[in-house]
Structures are given as structure tokens and as C-alpha cells.
Amino acid sequence: VQKINLTNHTVFLQILVHTPAHASLGSVLTYRCDTRLPPGTLVRVPLGKRETLGLVWQEANGSELPTEDKIRAVSGVLEGIAPLNAQWLQLIQFCAQYYQRSIGEVALNALPLKLKGITPAQMQRRLRKVSPDKTSPNKPDTSEPTLTPEQSIALAQITQHTGPFLLFGSTGSGKTEVYLQAVHNLLTNKPHAQALIMVPEINLTPQLEYRFLARFAPLFGSQAVVSMHSGLTPVQRLKSWLVAHQGEARIVLGTRMAIFASLPQLQLIVVDEEHDPSYKGSDGARYSARDLALFRAKIEGAKVILGSATPSLESWHSSRPTSEGGRIVRLAMPSRVGQGVLPQVRRIDMRHQPRQAVIAPPLLQAITERIQRGEQCMIFLNRRGYAPVLHCADCGWKSACPHCSAFRVFHKIDRSLRCHHCGFADTVPRACPDCGNIDITPIGRGTEQLEEHLAALLSQVQRPDGSAVRIARIDADSTRHKGSLEQQLAAVHAGEVDILVGTQMIAKGHDFRRITLVAAINPDNALFSSDFRAPERLFSLLLQAAGRAGRDASLGENSEMWIQSYQPDHPLYAALKAYDYPTFAAQQLQERTQAGMPPFSAQALVRAEARSQESAQAFLQAARDAALHEMPHWEGWAPVLEQISLYSAVPMTVQRIANIERAQMLLESPSRPALQQFLAGWQSVLHACRKLDACKGLIRWAIDVDPQSI
Ligand SMILES: [Zn+2]
Ligand SMILES: [Zn+2]
Q1: Ligand with smallest separation from the Cα of 659
Q2: Strand partners, 391
Q3: How far, in Å, is the centroid of ligand 1 from the Cα of 26?
Q4: How many A from CA of 407 to the centre of ligand 1?
Q5: Which ligand approaches the C-alpha of residue 396 most closely?
Q6: What pLDDT, on a 0 to 100 scale, did the predictor assign at position 2?
Q7: Which end of the chain is more exposed for a tag (fewer CB within 10 A), N or C?
């Protein structure tokens, strides 16, 4: 190590880097530099034997000043990129703190990967490529549609108040048009303002991007709208990021990750379909982009609009009247735009249908009639593959996955047995591997079998021109190849498909004009799920699916949503039939108040993965014991602990995946701040428990704050 001659000019900087998880190093390291660098400056720094991207956090001062001369120097500054601003840094800090992750990990993951390896020369080239678009015409946008009274009122409220807003609009009520005009008002009134529009699914971005480009490219140039999602190449992502960071992009459209876009002039955030579970991450920093949007809007002084036909119960509860403690302004748009009417919901009692009937005879009749009239139907079943399990009736063998506590799913198309958890796949055995019986049979039904079954049932049915019925299937299997989803969707739009079969993928967002019948084949499972959020998800999914029908007024007058159920009188289906989300929400909130569940309490999960179930649970149990028996001796901890319920460690629903055993432990508190305080203190206890002998097989653990599935 070289001896450093400290000069008057030498400054010490705390710099965020991405260190490996649970490394002994923290993620805030001290480096020296000969010039002062403001917080938010992007730098290159040495880390071990390599060089990595770093972000200046602050100057190290006073007692933090290093006494050793081992402090390494900053290698260089990323020239030409303005420092990230204070609000962005605050967002990162909040996210790391709230979700119990290291700040370096959160910060560096929020930046485009491509920044890491880039040289100043390459950066200059990229920056030239994104120089402002000079061709933007100043032609006024004359295409703006007239708003309905409901839309006008909502827009006026958004203009007059500071929000935050919950735009509670039924499917087809024209929420997107409200977003478009809110953005339009903002961008024309404030010449530098920027807006962030978030959607839950990557395959919904092209549609939305098209609408935004069509509206705003003529006004602000084609650079004005950029997208950010995981489908972009690293170079595309870097480009979008730079244009936004430089303030040239006026609108950023994106999925969850876009919440961290650097937008120096951010004034408006829209979170469309705010209830969608995909806004919450399922690994790494499991942040909720919706919740971060509310925080970010507050620190930026920006407005935020959460939009949904079936809001999350958290947002719904927050939008109760101010007099009752509500913090979000609720804007209701109950009507559909134009003449479109919501389809009539029909519940079929499967207890009174022929045994073994997959499609009840009255539903089959309804489908047949629609096809004969040249209309389209959409049928969904939330299970892909041909059958969820193969079974030998002689000896009881089932197609279990050798690596997971789950069955392998039978895919007839390539005669494979595939595990949907670990990916393990092989060909279907000719005979039962245990007893040699050649008559092994599928149990249950997936989309692949439903498609085949429908084709058989409808083989004699003719379309208006006398031709045969055309069936298409859209699920994760049929859309594995890039571009195949777009192709299949285009075929549906073009009227080349009569029946669309699929998983919940098809229920979301797509604007199919000619569908007049939607059917849910077997939605009951969620009614009996151990996850308290399952009914909320089911209601939202069915309502969205219903929203796919009857969008074209000329066809929509007799559109229908069919539900096949063994519990047709269940209150959830009754509320759905009436399109009555408020009643459904009130029922659910009532149950949750009584059970002390969110939004009336805050939760966190600790998940542990280990070589054996014993060591996974031993780790969690040890951390729990320490919390209950050792932490009370800590100064000031008793009142925090009093507000926390720590449940016992239990195996996860799918206990073993890819030979790794999984266990979890739930924490609950009526007070969010208490839970936060507890988790922050408990981190060191968890780290210490990792080293116990009983926890030897432990592979990793993580905290999930506000978990979405339990
Ligand atoms: Zn057998
Ligand atoms: Zn498996």
C-alpha cells in the first residue's frame, strides 16, 4: 500500500458501491479524492481487484475521518453526467431503510447496468446520440377527445388539488384519457416538467407507448417519450435513462423499475392498475413501486394518481373521507365511455351440472351461438400445461418433482413432465416407473387440455361463412419466444381467432373489441386459499376479465361474463354480479379489522432457505428466541417489542424448490413505525444467528416488508 501524502486538497468521501450480499464490507466505503465532489456524483472506484461504479453519498467528516492510510483514491468521475439530485438520493435512502436492504445495493441496482463499464469516450458518444431532437414540430394537438362529465370532474380535481389521488374508474371508463390530459396540461403549462407513467406489465407498455407517442410526439418531439422496462437491451435502457436524467424526456413510461428513473423535473406520477401485485418485487429489494411512488411524489412536490377499477384494499382504505383519517383523494368514474355496457355476470352452479363436465352445457350453448354470429369468446383457466399431475391408479404413483415438494405438470404438446418451480423436465414415461402399469392418466386440467377439449366440443360448429372454429391459446408456454405474444394478440385483434383460451395473462389490459363472452372455468380455488389476499386478487382478476367483453358498443349490448362455481352464492360472486367493488371492499375490510390484518396492521416476513428444513427453521427460531429473550435487555427495547407479534417458523407452501428447503416467519404489529424500529434493530441479531451451529445448512435469508403473499 502506497503511503499517501495528505494535502490540503484531499477530501474523504463516502461512496456507495454494490458489494456482494452479506459481505463483511458495508456498502458505504470511504475513498479519497483531490477535488470536492457533490453528493450524487457518479464515479469509478477500485473495489478489491476490480474497478466499479460508485455514487458519492457525502463527505466523510469529523469523527468519521479515517486514520489509516489505506484509503484508496477515486479512479475517475463519469464526465458529462450531472450528479443525481437530492430527492433521488432521499428516495434511495428511504427505500433501503424501509425495506431493510443495503443502501449501496438499492442505489446501484437503480442505475442502468451499462453505466458501470462505460468509458468517458463511450459516454461522450452516447450523449451525442441523445442530443435534443430538433425536428419537433409545434403543431397543436387537435386530436384530444372530448371528456365525459365524469372524466372532466376527475381532471378538474387533479388540476385544483395537490392529491394524492385514487382514480377509481370502472374498466372502460377512460382512465387513460384522464392520464393523457393531466400530462398534457402539465407539460404545456410548465415547459420543463416531467411525468412518470407506470404500468404493471411489460406487455402493456407498447400499447400505452403508442398512445402517448401519438399524442405527444407531435407536440414535444419523438425524444419526449421514452420507456423503461426489463425488456430493453442494456444499451436501450442506458439511452432512456440518460434522456430522462438530462431532462429531455418529458414522459417516462415503464414498469416497476421506472420508479427509480432520474427525473430532475418530476411533477406527476401515474400508477396505472395500482392494485397489481407485480408492483411489488419478489426478490432482491422487495420494494413496492406503488408505495415508493407515494413517497417520491411527496419529496418531489409532485402529484400522484393511482388508478384502478379494483383498488388495493390499502389504497381504498386510505381514500376514505378525510374526516375519518383518509389521506388520498378518491375520484370516482363509475360509467363506461361511449355506449359500451358492462357484461351481464352469469353464475353457473356446477353442483347441478353433469359430472365430469369441464364446460357446463349452458355455457357451451352460449359459446356456440356467439361463434355462429361471428363474435369472439375468451375463456380462462389459471393453470397452464395439459394436466397438473399424472397418476397411476394401480400403485398410486404421481408425477412428483424429485427436486421440489410439487408435482410436475404434464405438457402433451411435447409429451413432457415439467416442474413449474425449478424447471426440471423429462419425457413422459411409457409406463408407471414404480409398478410398470402402462395406463397412467392425467388428473385435473390445464389450458392446453382445455384448448383440445373445446376443439372437440365445437368440431361441428360453423362460423357464419361456414368455416371451422379457430381457437388460440395464450399462456406462458405459448408466448415463450420473443414476439410471439404480440403476434398472437394481433391475430385476436384482426378477428382471426374465435375463441381465446388462456391464463390470467389474457385478462389484463388488452383492449379486444370483438369479445362478447368471457368465461372463468374454475375460479373457486382462491375462495379457500390460506392467503388472506386471495379473494381480493380473484375479485380484481374477474372484474378485469369481465372488462374485456362488450367494449364495442355495436356488439356489447348482450355481452356476458360466465362464472362456473361450486359456490355460486358466495358474497364475492354476488358483489361481482352487481359490479359492486365498494361492497366487496367493505366486506373484506370488515374481516381484516376483526383479524387485525393489513391495512389495520403492518407485516413483515423473514424467509430462510437452507439445505434442510430443520436448519431453516432453527435459524428463524433462534432469531425469534433472541428477540424475545435477549433483546428485552437492550436499552429502550421493551416498548418496541411490546407492539410486535412474532409467529413461529413454518415451512413455506411449496416447502422445497430445487432441493432447497424454505421456511418463513411472520411478524405483525399494529404500528408501522414500531415494526420498522424492530426490524432495524433485529438485523444484527439475524446476522449473528447465522453463525450458530444449529443453522449450519442455512444458505440465505431475507426480510420482506409488507409481503404480498403469505
Ligand atoms: Zn404404478
Ligand atoms: Zn422442481
Answers
A1: 2
A2: 398, 441
A3: 55
A4: 16
A5: 1
A6: 40
A7: N
Gap from CA of 611 to ligand 2 centroid (Å): 15
Cβ atoms of residues 154 and 170 within 8 Å: no
Please report, to the nearest 10 degrees, the dihedral formed by the alpha carbons of residues 14, 16, 19, 21 taken in order: 110
- Cell 393531466 -> residue: 182
For 455-493, how does the pLDDT look when each residue is reduced to its tens digit (9 = 90+)? 999 999 999 999 999 999 988 888 888 788 888 888 888
Enter the C-alpha cell of residue 194: 416531467
Neighbours of 527 (CB within 10 A): 16
CA of 183 to the centre of ligand 1 (A): 63
Q: What number of helices (H) and strands (E) belong to the chain?
A: 20, 28
Residues with CB under 5 Å of ion ligand 1 are 392, 394-395, 397, 432, 434-435, 437
> Measured in Å, how far apart are the chain's first and last C-alpha atoms?
51
State how far the Cα of 102 lies from the Cα of 98, in Å rounded to an integer. Answer: 10
Residues β-bridged to residue 32: 12, 73
Considering every ligand atom shown, identify the ligand nearest to the alpha carbon of residue 419 and give its number: 2
CA gap 376, 494 in Å, rounded: 11
Starting at the edge strand that comes first in sequence, how are the strands of the sheet with 409-411 ordered? Answer: 409-411, 416-418, 425-427
Per DSSP, the residues of 83-95 read PPPHHHHHHHHHH
Helix (H) / strand (E) containing 441: strand 440-443
Can you spell out the DSSP letters for 523-568?
Answer: GGGGGG-SSTTHHHHHHHHHHHHHTTSS-SHHHHTT-EEEEEES-T
One-letter identity of residue 247: G
pLDDT tens for each residue of 109-135? 999 988 876 666 776 676 666 554 444
Distance from the CA of 419 to the center of ligand 2, in angstroms? Answer: 5
Matching residue, cell 414404480: 434
Output the CA 613–ligand 2 centroid distance in Å: 16
Whether 370 contacts 510, CB under 8 Å: no
